[in-house]
Amino acid sequence: MDVHCPAPSGPGPSILASLPLAVACALLLLSGPVAGKGSDWDDSVVGQAGAPVTLPCSAQLGNRTVHWHWQPAGWDSWSLVLSANHKQEFWGGARKLEQRLADPSFPSSGDLSLAFRARQQDSGQYLCEVDTKEGEMKPKRHIVLLVILTVSVGPPSPVPAGGTARLLARVSAEDWRGGVSWFSPQGVPLPRETLPSGGVLSKVPRFGPADQGNYTCQVLPQGPCGRPRFLFSHAVVLRDSTQDPFTNVSHGLSQSLVSSSLSPLSLPCLWSPGADYFQLRWRLPDSRKTQLVFLFDRWRQSTENRRPARLRLAHPDPFRSGNYSFLLTPKPGDAGRYTCEVFLDESAYQKSLSLTVVHGDSSLYSSSVYPALAVAGVLSLLLALAAAVVLWKRGICQQHTAREEPPCAVEGENLYENPDDLRKDWDQRGEFVPPTAVYMELNPDGQDVYKELERYEECHQ
Q: Looking at residues 130-140, what average pLDDT do you find?
């Protein structure tokens, strides 16, 4: 009379149940080990905390007694959980919630499986032992490893629209090896990360109506590929709300940049490594509507670039480095406000840059959000007008030099400094001056243009 354990069955989507054996083996290899030291058990069962679990064991009982013992992880001794004989008499010590033998007719059926409601602390090894009968040297023994799976979904379902759903699975046994995977409601494997704590994490950023449904956590014990897969389904629904799902938003220093057309420039964006996804948005200077020009989602493994010929990433591995900057070769039509947005769970980071594109070879950074150079044309006209008026004033005042000193005399020969001299002064201070940068001074020699106009009125009178 041999003791054998039937393969337990579990719920799961039909697409997973129909996976061929070769695919199941490949998933096990790809999922990687959870932890382990080796195996000294005959079978393993994965149960979820708070849910019923059944530890299989079968034998023809006859007039003998079956004993179930438990050895928690790290213990060297066994504790009696439940004993039962052919008279359906029960006794035991280390009780479990709702413990019983799964089949009420176990004396005749030979199904000696132990059933109870699992808790986190119930993980460990369980020994199914049937007393010896006459002529046998030792009792029939079968050891089952019980692994408790804990699953958490964050934020708690329903997930806010546009938020990031986090699916985390942990197993309780340190001396157990196996693979843990997550599947979408359509049965598609989700990218995952194994955390230092041993948990397996998958995420669904930008959660929307199409992402609702039952997500399946598959636990596949290591060993022969014929071993059963344990499937656990978790419903995740959408909370349709206009509330921003990102509750912790930080902002970088806004900048302005004037650059020549077709000259490569950097759109800086530095934040913490390990973001879920990041994107670049753009709007015209005279518009309030923004457009998405770049998106990189590492969990959905998707990239979208709407300016592939002129826009690219500045770092080959932005998620590991935390460098989410871009390199842009602009055309005149690319002027506007660029905003880099980086997202991680409920946190977000934003950094904006206002870009003016001109013909030539000049570039200049400043910390202003709205650059004064946007009105450079108007200022140039005002300067030209002021210069003409002052020079005219000089001519009139020279007519009075024989009678008295003109009250409107202007010190110095040049009203405005020479840009070449300014460029030399800047170089002496160790600052970079673009070769074609234009310097405009509205207050030459410390004098106010409008006071010069008042002096002209005095001369004219």
A: 73
